[in-house]
Amino acid sequence: xxxTYIMTLVLLGLVSCPTRVSAKLAQSINRPQVNIRSQSQRPxxxxxxxPTGRRKGGTSRDGCTPLNTPITALVPGEEIADESxxxxxxxxxxxxxxxxxVPELPKNAVFGEFILQDENDKNIYKTSISLPRKASxxxxxxxxxxxxxxxxxxxYQWYFKVFCGNPQRMSEYFYVKAWIQRLPxxxxxxxxxxxxxxxxxATYAFNQIWQxxxxxxxxxxRSNPNSRLFTKDWTLLLKDIGLAELATAxxxxxxxxxxxxxxxx
Length: 265
Prior knowledge:
Blueprint: H1 3-11, H2 13-16, H3 23-28, E1 54-59, E2 72-73, E3 88-91, E4 97-102, E5 111-118, E6 123-130, E7 136-141, E8 155-163, E9 173-182, H4 187-195, H5 200-206, H6 210-223, H7 228-240, E10 251-254, E11 261-262
């Protein structure tokens, strides 16, 4: 069975049911079901209201000139007009990579900022970013230190901001916002990953671990730019969450900024 066909079946559930894969689907691709997250085990958020998110860039003030194409967080979710929807993804990585699409920007918009917070709005990691001049998909990886490491079964929110140009007016920026939770690596998932070392993204996608599926496939696509298989699967992965139009953008993975601000919990 071709991988692209498997991926089509695997990815069908990402938007409509992002927290589990049906038993029927598991049987259809002849693989064991790994019940990472059942309906009754969906993550609980703080009591201060439902968690909010924004997949496509809004503005903090009216001083920002509208962009032709919005900044976009590469996360599953439905498009809405306000911030009443939570864009939550899962990872098994202690130091995951966060992905955003940045369109071609005005000449005066040259820097951005990434912020990771715990569910109580306390900064865990914060870094400034020099933005590319061409439209790109950016991967922002957490630095390997104890302050920024994600704890298992904890909820974190992250922001990506692009400032509108005037460094004296830091309150004016475009931004996206989403949530992430780290899951434990169980023995079933570990066994599956060992069997699919050359294409771990298929296993991650099957188990609804979106963040790691995206990161693994993005890395493979960057390392193998002429691979028709990885190019097709990258397009399929983004198409399944309604972002197929971004699939041709170049992928840039940013190294952790040594000057980044890290704060302990």
